[in-house]
Automatic annotation (TrEMBL):
PROSITE patterns the UniProt entry points to: TYR_RECOMBINASE
Organism: Tetragenococcus halophilus (strain DSM 20338 / JCM 20259 / NCIMB 9735 / NBRC 12172)
UniProt keyword Glycosyltransferase, yes or no: no
Family in the record: Belongs to the 'phage' integrase family.
UniProt superkingdom: Bacteria
GO biological process terms held by the UniProt record: DNA integration; DNA recombination
Domain Tyr recombinase: 166-368
Molecular function (Gene Ontology), one example: DNA binding
Name under which the protein is recorded: Site-specific recombinase
Amino acid sequence: MVVRKDKKKRTWIIDLSLGENLLSGKRKRIVRKGFHSKKEAQKAEKKLYQIFLSDEPNYDHIRIQELFDHLMREDENNQRKPSYIRTQKYNYNRHLKPYFQGSLIVQLKYEHIFEFREYLCTKGLSNNTVNKIMILLKRILDVGIRKGYMTDNPCTLLKKLPTENKRMNFWTLEEFHEFRQLFTEEEKNYLIFFTLAFFTGMRSGELLGLTWEDINFFRREIYVHKNLTKVDGKFILNTPKTTAGKRIIIINRKLVEDLKAWKETQYTWLSKEMSLTKEAQEKIQVVQKDHLLLHKDNVRKKYDAIFRRPTELKKIRIHDFRHSHVALLINNGEDPYMIKERIGHASIQTIYDLYGHLYPSKQLDTADRLDQFY
């Protein structure tokens, strides 16, 4: 009963009880005495409700969608890259929302988080993918901490699943030359894309963001400082993921000659479709063939089409062209620090961790040299 009569003193009492506060575990209760009439007590009761709700808001109703929406606004305000935000939205809608949309955030415990991770593992996802989803969940619940909805984040108690570096595929120089023979003259721009990938180690987005003004033929330099992505049908130029990603790559003379010849061919092709001056061409995408920008989907579809042609080549991922470049450098005895600078890794340890196993013949050479000491 909210309003009741004190029979001994012949006055009225307000006794407000709103159950248990899930954040503190304490009972929500307010008691006021000494009202001379029931009407006076009821009037005071309404005021107390207003004060109680404003001073001690009830967060028991908060669900994951509200926290995720707030996190996305934070990421946008912090100018996180659109491609990153798109990935976060995909993982949320694909994995987190269907599982947690009916859950009250303040009731989540370690056991619930652990069960969710086990559920992800049963879906056949890799440990690396599961870890990324759990990082997103932790970021979402951290919003709840910052806004005062929760006192702790149950994700912090969960350790990451162990991950293994996948063995990388790569092509030797001979295999790449065999690949080059599969292209027609009309596919010259795609051949340039893959040739640059193999002989520079640039990422796909970096190659697609490359314009002619980024190439100095005299100094044989490529200035890598942007990458092109397509998000929701819009092309976006981003800066590299890390500071080390912004770099200068020195290219070999034969590649310079190929690029010069392609630039002339490109100018001839584009001039048929659009008004183009030599000055304007400097801002054109290097691998562009017509008035439309080339993007990753174009490259992937062409790559798949190439492998539908007769060939005995093993198919590697497009990203493995980057690994192939590193393998080529390692096989040529290049210094690991130079390799790090060339491909834009922040740490030389990454070279040892990711690429130390490439070209097993290097280990064989080492083992053979040990014969003199045996």
